[in-house]
């Protein structure tokens, strides 16, 4: 592939296009300043304003959330895997029906694999604008977001209504539900029993890994972070590796499925049959299947990137603790 052919598969951090109306809590105080980014795949946005950077199916979705300090994402759940790593800032992740079953604080480079079927939320507790990058299982990301009932109720008080067609309607703009579309029904008490209250030991012990621990494990070979043999043992429809300077190789190789490169630290030179480019933290690059390529740091200093590749495992519910 020529550089011109590859360019549409590269999304630079500075070119990311945010959506501030992506979800039902877009007007809710405390959540109304967040920005949602859909980088690869359709994502789970409820707004037609959401820009999709790369629509090529990968078997998983890549997105991001950018938030100023004290801004939070409301309690929700997914039917497929949701994995986050911290690109910048300091973040508190919390979970449970009311968000009080447990919490954990993540720093730059840390990763969390959140169990399917539990309500979760997150907030920027740092002092500057922060960004977390997300991997969602499946090409359709499980069909959307499942909101805790109180999130939908509070949003209604601020003018936003979610239709049962998965679309948002803003009464502040004079919008109303179209004929034949009803408000998204709230989960019943019986349905809520299917969303477990998992302990910190379950979520943190099984699903959180610290950046510097993974760096230590990636001395001679990439650290298998998520996968059947990973330090997080799960099969969510994709695998995640952490590659560092000490284990990077200039040997050309290829994958039988599309793969994605996401630098966390340092600059990385990607070479393929037909060209090369350099990636920086926050950039995302999609590599086609069966394309020989090599990835090595291009400058001195700390260097690490996450590598994601799809698998044949189903993208439905995965581990539940």
Automatic annotation (TrEMBL):
Q: Does the keyword Metal-binding apply?
A: yes
Coiled-coil residue windows: none
ATP-binding as a keyword of this entry, yes or no, is: no
Give the protein name, as stated in the record: Cupin
Instruction: Give a single Pfam family match.
Output: Cupin_2
Q: Describe the location of the Cupin type-2 domain by residue ranges.
A: 69-132
Keywords of this protein's UniProt record, alphabetized? Metal-binding
Stored SUPFAM superfamilies: RmlC-like cupins
Please give the InterPro entries that the UniProt record associates with this protein. Answer: Cupin_2, GPI/OXD, RmlC-like_jellyroll, RmlC_Cupin_sf
The organism's place on the tree of life at top rank:
Bacteria
């Amino acid at each position: 592939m020529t550089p011109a052919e590859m360019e549409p598969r590269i999304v630079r951090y500075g070119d990311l296009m945010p959506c501030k109306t992506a979800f039902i809590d877009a007007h809710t105080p405390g959540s109304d300043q967040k920005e949602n980014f859909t980088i690869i795949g359709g994502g789970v946005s409820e707004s037609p304003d959401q820009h999709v950077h790369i629509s090529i199916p990968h078997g998983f979705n890549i997105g991001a959330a950018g938030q100023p300090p004290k801004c939070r994402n409301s309690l929700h759940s997914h039917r497929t895997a949701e994995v986050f790593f911290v690109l910048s800032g300091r973040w508190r992740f919390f979970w449970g029906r009311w968000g009080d079953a447990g919490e954990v604080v993540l720093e730059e480079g840390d990763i969390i694999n959140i169990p399917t079927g539990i309500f979760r939320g997150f907030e920027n507790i740092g002092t500057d604008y922060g960004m977390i990058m997300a991997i969602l299982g499946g090409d359709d990301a499980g069909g959307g977001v499942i909101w805790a009932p109180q999130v939908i109720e509070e949003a209604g008080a601020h003018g936003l209504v979610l239709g049962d067609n998965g679309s948002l309607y803003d009464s502040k703009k004079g919008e109303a539900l179209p004929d034949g579309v009803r408000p998204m029904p709230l989960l019943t008490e019986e349905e809520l029993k299917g969303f477990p209250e998992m302990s910190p030991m379950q979520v943190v012990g099984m699903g959180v890994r610290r950046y510097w621990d993974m760096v230590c494990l990636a001395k001679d070979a990439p650290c298998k972070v998520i996968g059947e043999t990973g330090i997080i043992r799960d099969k969510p429809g994709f695998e995640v590796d952490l590659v560092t300077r000490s284990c990077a190789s200039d040997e050309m190789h290829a994958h039988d499925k599309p793969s994605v490169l996401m630098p966390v630290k340092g600059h990385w030179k990607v070479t393929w049959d037909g060209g090369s480019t350099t990636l920086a933290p926050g950039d995302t690059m999609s590599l086609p299947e069966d394309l020989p390529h090599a990835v090595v740091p291009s400058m001195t200093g700390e260097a690490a990137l996450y590598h994601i590749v799809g698998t044949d495992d189903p993208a439905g519910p995965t581990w539940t603790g």
